Amino acid sequence: MPSQDFFPQRPDSHPSIYAYKDTNPNHNGLLKVGYTTRDVEVRVCEQFPVIQPEERPYNIVFAESAVRDDGTVFLDHPLHHWLERHDHEGMGGEWFRCTPDDVRAAWVAVRDRTENVEERDQNFKMRPEQAEAVRRTREYFESVNAEGSKRTPKFLWNAKMRFGKTFASYELAKSMGMSRVLVLTFKPAVQSAWEEDLNRHVDFEDWQFVCREGQQYEDCDPSRPIVCFGSFQDYLGLDSNGNIKARHEWVRLTDWDLVIFDEYHFGAWRDSARKLFASIGEDDEKAIHEDVKVTGNEQDETWLPIVTKYFLFLSGTPFRVLNSGEFIKEQIFNWTYSDEQAAKAAWKPSQGPNPYASLPRMVMLTYQMPEDIKRIALNTDTNQFDLNVFFSAEGEGEAAQFKFKSYVQMWLDLMRGQHMPTTVDELKLGEKPAMPFSDVRLLSVLGHTLWFLPNVASCFAMKNLLMERQNTFFHDYHINVCAGSGAGIGLAALPPVQKSMRDPLESESITLSCGKLTTGVTVKPWTGVFMLSNVKSAETYFQTAFRVQSPWTVKDDDGNMQIVKNECYVFDFALDRALTMVSDYSTQLSTEKKGPEQKVGDFIRFLPVLAYDGSRMKEINASEILDIAMAGTSATLLAKRWESALLVNVDNDTLRRLLANDEAINALMSIEGFRSLNDDIKTIINKSEAIKKVKKEKGDNLTQKEKKQLTEEEKEFKSKRKEIQEKLIKFATRIPVFMYLTDYREETLYDVITQLEPGLFKKVTGLDVSDFNLLVSLGMFNSALMNDAVYKFRRYEDASLVYTGINKHEGEKVGLYDTSLSNYDYLYAKQQESMVAPDGSALGNGAKAEAPSPAVAVKPSVKPSALSVSRSTAKATMLGEAPLKKDWVVGVLESHNVRIADRRPKGGSL
């Protein structure tokens, strides 16, 4: 069982505002108004140190919580200011001539922020990484200006959630003397963060905030800096005639100093997403996550009807952006969860107060569902528990019910520790695994949780089930259904959730959502998130998971910070999926040149993963995570990685380089399907450039005939671009076949193609090595994604290479696309500070870990000899050195889509 370190106790803190009167004649008609985090009676009594225990020379007339619905804590000073402004005379210190009703009025005003009085109560400074982001961005912007480039400079902050992107963005604008800033987002719910930082921090005292429901642009003082916040849907959406909405004409007429794209990972700037501007709502979050397609390096902001000096892009999960090569290294600032927690651990007391101390560590608890629960929703093809099926529901509102209601009830009982058969391991260990609503250590911190469900019907069905008689335990929780149109759109969905948390340290709530409030919002009291939906994207998964990592602190009686939330938790009930998400997130967002296992190890050093396998719960290491994640990958899914549009680049710049090179054109035209390549490329480039020029020059002044003509031309060049892309992808899907046939596992794929097996490559793909080199030099292949795809192929292939302890490739390095990993990095990357020995004990510095035993054994399905024969025969066949014997190889080559699972030899694994 994991150590107590994973479940620290929350401090016994109860922030309160109190008022009392005493018997001192000098205080006649006065009340003392104060603040404490301890018991009010104890705190007041301490102010009369000479009295006897039975004496009581005071009368407490007011005592209420000092915690707002959103989890923020207020002291007594704002109440003092309110009383003074309302002519309640003070006598210095905390004594005021007022009544208990006056104190209550002040308390309500401060708690609810009902008075329009600017209270700038934040004066914190930038953390080191925020200052570094501002410095590097400013230096890049200034360097581009110095070069005299005509293209608007742009910069990306790949910074984890809770980095403080809003505050740091304002500091960037202030440091560069900017006075007009436009913030655009696809998620209106993030408005609260932008508004709060600007209105509450002392650094931005003269700044003005413009939003749809607040101050308007025309009412602002033009001599003072202005920040305008809005959604793409509102500011850049089109009316029924296809024109920019008239009420937002000022957006395009203003010369902006900086345009910020917040929540950039949603891809709102893409052609395929523009149609959403006028109609998208909060219930379409899932569609945005899953359906917005990104095809190559095609970023171009020139279509936007706005003028600005600089672009700043913000995202905590910019997977598509990093993979597309849209930004060069000099245009990116990276700050990951691992970076944050490492800085927190490395901070020395001599450096002063730790600025990272309040940022909680995340702990992931994953559970293998008991057989009698998961069998109803077990996918027989993948042998994985299907959460969407399990939590599927029918009906609306109070009539919504789960299809498998009795099984969901069994799951709720499991969460309460009431559906757990006693196992031999439990009897030996004398302890049970930590279940969310039965383990007292978790119960003490899980006062407010977010449950992420598949759809609206599931959310209502869960509320209805929680409220039934048999679930009396959950009747003490306020259940929020944050789904459907009734929950509000954008920021409107947040206040009801916060209101349900009145006095968050004492109350309890569960928020049910299928997309709302899972991006860009801060709800301090949330300490746990339940992943109850089959989220396939690591981007969506961790955007949701990091909602619970917001810091939550209070100040004690001496003004020192107390941390309420030291730890926060992610609960997942699809073990393979959870570990795949950890693997994808840690390897894709880290830009360091490390092996995948080392990247995962760095990540879980600060986000420990505890797995319940049906009998016991234990912490698992990086190798086990990768083994489980890869073992859960079917051959068909593996093949789909080679069908990704991101593997090839078909943006105008790449196509222009291709068109200018006759040798490259001839090389591609030699491949089946590329006969009309030259004309197609010219059509794409000419028409796309012409359309951009027309749109930039005429804007909204196009006639209906011109609009129709442009639409037809857009369809034509996009169709041809897609056609070329699909042909290149078809070529890319032949590469796994080549990898299967070659024996050189230790060399990079590039070297195997160009030096070791050029003849075989020509047979499989139809390209000469010189032609391949030419296409690579033109940037038509994304090497970063190629490396990732080859790595996953190698991991999947491992099971076929080892049989009864015999490993033909033991000790060899492992080649990827254009780089290679040592055997040490590939299999046993040493994590000196985070690795654990097989017995669970920590390893000291310099100690080497033995090869960890995989949590899920992957049995080899074919002996090395059989595999070697099949490969050598297939290879000889391709080179014309042996008769055709393996029709399944021919099938793979003819299909060109590498459906390995369907065409493997009987009993084979590939």
* Count of the domains: 4
What is the overall silhouette? globular
Separation of termini? 38 Å
C-alpha Rg, in Å?
A: 31 Å
- The strand line-up of the biggest sheet is 18-19-17-20-23-12-24-25
Count the E strands. 29
Low-confidence stretches: 268-303, 423-430, 633-638, 828-871, 881-910
Percent of residues in helices: 25-40%
Protein name: Bacteriophage T5 Orf172 DNA-binding domain-containing protein
Keywords: Coiled coil
InterPro entries: Helicase/UvrB_N, P-loop_NTPase, Phage_T5_Orf172_DNA-bd
Pfam family, one: T5orf172
Report on this structure.
By secondary structure, the chain is α/β, with parallel strands linked by helices. It folds into four domains: 6-112, no CATH class; 128-335, P-loop containing nucleotide triphosphate hydrolases (Rossmann fold), CATH 3.40.50; 344-452 and 464-480 and 502-511 and 524-637, no CATH class; 643-827, no CATH class. Helix content is 39%, strand content 14%. An eight-stranded mixed β-sheet has the order 18-19-17-20-23-12-24-25, sandwiched between helices. The model is unreliable at 268-303, 423-430, 633-638, 828-871 and 881-910 (pLDDT under 50).
Please outline the helices and strands:
Elements: E1 16-22, E2 31-36, H1 40-46, E3 58-65, H2 77-85, E4 95-96, H3 100-112, H4 128-147, E5 154-159, H5 165-175, E6 180-185, H6 191-200, E7 208-210, E8 226-231, H7 232-235, H8 249-253, E9 255-262, H9 271-274, H10 285-291, E10 307-315, H11 319-324, E11 332-335, H12 337-346, E12 361-367, H13 371-374, E13 378-379, E14 384-385, H14 387-390, E15 393-394, E16 401-402, H15 405-415, H16 424-429, H17 440-443, E17 448-452, H18 456-466, E18 478-482, H19 494-499, E19 509-513, E20 526-531, H20 538-545, E21 553-555, E22 561-563, E23 567-572, H21 575-589, H22 596-606, E24 609-612, E25 617-619, H23 622-631, H24 635-640, H25 652-659, H26 662-669, H27 677-698, H28 704-732, H29 735-741, H30 749-756, H31 758-765, H32 769-777, H33 783-801, E26 802-803, E27 806-807, E28 814-815, E29 820-821, H34 823-827, H35 864-878, H36 887-895, H37 900-903
Parallel strand pairs: 5-10, 5-11, 6-8, 6-9, 7-8, 9-10, 12-23, 12-24, 17-19, 17-20, 18-19, 20-23
Antiparallel strand pairs: 1-2, 1-3, 2-4, 13-14, 15-16, 21-22, 24-25, 26-27, 28-29
Helix pairs in contact: 2-3, 4-5, 12-22, 20-21, 21-22, 21-23, 22-23, 25-27, 26-32, 27-28, 29-31
Pfam family, one: T5orf172
Keywords: Coiled coil
GO molecular function: ATP binding; DNA binding; hydrolase activity
